[in-house]
Design goal:
Elements: E1 3-10, H1 12-16, H2 20-29, E2 33-40, H3 44-50, H4 60-67, E3 72-80, H5 82-90, H6 103-107, E4 116-118, H7 122-132
The structure holds inosine-5'-diphosphate (IDP).
Inosine-5'-diphosphate binds next to loops.
Length: about 140
C-alpha cells in the first residue's frame, strides 16, 4: 500500500459557480483526505511559474489569464495511490473525452475551463505541493 500526496486546484470557473463543496465531496467520497487547503488569488507570475512546462504553447497566455480570473482553492490530497486515483477521479483534460461520473465530465465547461487540476506524477506532485505550501502547513492525518 503506497500512501501518496497529490496537489489539487479547484480552478476559477468552479469557484465562481460555487462548486467548491461538491468537488471536495468527490475527494472525500473517493477516500482522499484533505491535509492542507487554502483560497488564493494567483498573481500572473505565480500562474506562469506553475504552468512553466506549457510556456510557448498556443494556449499558454489564455490559460494564465483564466487561472488569474478569480480565486482558486489549492489543496493537498492524501491517500493510497492518490496521484493516479485523483487523475482518474478528475477525468481527461477535455471534458468531452472524460469518463461519465468524473469531476470534469460533470462540471467542466470546456477544455480550458475544466474546473480542476491534479498532479500527473510523483515528481510533479512534489514540485506543485512545494510551490504553494510550506511543509508545516500540511497536517498529518494518520487516523
Ligand atoms: P491537465 O490539467 O489535465 O494535466 P495539461 O495538458 O497539463 O492538462 O494542461 C493544463 C491546462 O491547460 C488544462 O487543464 C487546461 O485548462 C488547459 N489546456 C490544455 N490544453 C489546452 C488547449 O488545447 N486549449 C485550451 N486550454 C488547454
Amino acid at each position: 500500500m503506497t500512501i501518496e500526496k497529490t496537489f489539487s486546484i479547484v480552478k476559477p470557473d468552479a469557484v465562481k459557480r460555487n462548486l467548491i463543496g461538491v468537488i471536495y465531496q468527490r475527494f472525500e467520497n473517493a477516500g482522499l483526505k484533505i491535509v492542507a487547503a487554502k483560497m488564493l488569488q494567483l498573481t500572473k507570475i505565480q500562474a506562469q511559474g506553475f504552468y512553466a512546462e506549457h510556456e510557448g504553447k498556443p494556449f499558454f497566455d489564455e490559460l494564465v489569464d483564466f487561472m488569474i480570473s478569480g480565486p482558486v482553492m489549492v489543496q493537498v490530497l492524501e491517500g493510497e495511490n492518490a496521484i493516479v486515483r485523483y487523475r482518474e477521479l478528475m477525468g481527461k483534460t477535455n471534458p468531452q473525452e472524460a469518463a461519465c461520473g468524473t469531476i470534469r465530465a460533470d462540471f467542466a465547461i470546456s477544455l480550458r475551463y475544466n474546473s480542476v487540476h491534479g498532479s500527473d506524477s510523483p515528481i510533479s506532485a512534489e514540485r506543485e505541493i512545494g510551490y504553494f505550501f510550506a511543509a508545516d502547513e500540511l497536517c498529518p492525518r494518520s487516523e
